[in-house]
Design goal:
Distance between the termini: 17 Å
Number of helices: 9
Strand content: 25-35%
Helix content: 25-40%
Order of helices and strands: EHEHEHEHHEEEEHHHEEEEEEHEEEEEE
Radius of gyration: 18 Å
Number of strands: 20
CATH architecture of the largest domain: Sandwich
CATH class of the largest domain: Mainly Beta
């Protein structure tokens, strides 16, 4: 078992990881810890380990780290494990993974798996695998501008603070899309594999990352007032019922507009245009 971990994640998260490692070591399992040194390093580590025949590679971190490791495992038979150490841990909550150190260690040792079908975003010759969602518009602008130090200091609250800053200055350009061949427009867009967003908040009821296809959440109303309304509805799990919100099931989505900020699994994903489809293969994720 190899565990891929970002040493810059913070002391509190490191302590949680060490507790899991202690329990695994006490169980007699052989563990190798690989620390990342730069963006994209987790993908490189995972790819080399999968090619070397490591059967289980564990992402210790949040959704961005999980996506990087999953990207490295894409196309291989290697299983993906998760130690949830992120700010929101959306995929871990989506799959019902455990969070306590003993339960996490037990799940990894037992090795029962569930299928995960990631998404793939393509921009020119570049490809980016994501495990939960890709957003374009205001939420991506928040991710692009979010100070890392603030995120480490106050966690999820940093997104709230940055959202309030961006609402005042984001121009809310109209985003042009093509969804399964039909063109439409929206103020903001979230293309999601699963139900949840920003933690345990309900975004797209009925969606699941274990199957092919996406739910496209289209926010038709633009401007600061509408953004605040949608933001207030999120913790109430009311987003899907709000006026000006459309949910569309789709297999292929193209964000056609230029220079629209994009984010994938909480990390910056550049700008549009971008084409989104399912990854070529599903992968197996270790669950509880």
């Amino acid at each position: 078992m190899m565990i891929v971990y970002n040493p810059a994640a913070g002391q509190r998260r490191a302590q949680r990881l060490w507790r899991v490692l202690d329990i695994l070591a006490d169980s007699g399992l052989r563990i190798e810890l690989a620390e990342t040194k730069y963006a994209g390093h987790a993908s490189e580590i995972a790819k080399r380990a999968a090619e070397a025949g490591v059967p289980l590679i564990v992402a210790a971190g949040g959704d961005g780290t999980i996506a990087e490791v999953a990207n490295g495992l894409s196309g291989s038979a290697c299983r993906l494990g998760i130690i949830p150490l992120g700010t929101a841990n959306v995929l871990a909550r989506e799959l019902g993974l455990p969070f306590t150190p003993r339960a996490v260690a037990s799940a990894l040792a037992f090795g029962r798996t569930r299928t995960l079908w990631p998404g793939m975003a393509r921009r020119g010759d570049e490809t980016l695998l994501f495990v939960q969602m890709l957003g374009a518009g205001l939420d991506a602008q928040v991710v692009h501008r979010l100070p890392l130090a603030l995120k480490r200091r106050i966690g999820r609250g940093a997104y709230v603070a940055q959202t309030l800053r961006e609402i005042a200055r984001y121009p809310f350009p109209t985003i042009r899309l093509r969804i399964d061949g039909e063109e439409t427009e929206a103020a903001s867009v979230i293309v999601t594999k699963g139900r949840l967003y920003a933690g345990a908040y309900m975004l797209a009821p009925g969606a699941t990352p274990t199957e092919k296809g996406f739910t496209v959440v289209l926010f038709d109303r633009s401007g600061a007032a509408s953004a605040l309304m949608y933001g207030a509805a999120l913790p109430l799990n009311m987003i899907s019922k709000m006026p000006g919100v459309r949910l569309v099931r789709a297999n292929e989505i193209e964000i056609l507009s230029d220079h629209v900020p994009a984010q994938a699994d909480g990390d910056s994903a550049g700008e549009g245009p971008v084409r989104i489809t399912d990854a070529a293969m599903a992968m197996n994720v270790v669950v509880s």
